[in-house]
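Quick start: what a row looks like.
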Amino acid sequence: MAEPRFLPLPDVATELNVSESQVYHMVRSGELPAIKIGGRGQWRVERVRLEQYIEEKYAETAAWVAQNPLITPDPE
């Protein structure tokens, strides 16, 4: 069975292992691209956009780690 193209925010929250309110904030702030669909304006995140977002977060984290190396004390 094919995965759906668009995900509701609760499914995005599950994928990212965060709360629905965190996903809503990411969408409303523009951090995570989403669209509103239907008469009640239900938010949906395209699966491809979610995967791109995750890849961007990996790149941001790698850059942060490179700029902030873990400094361990010298063993004596």
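That is the whole record. The longest strand covers residues 42-46. The radius of gyration is 17 Å.
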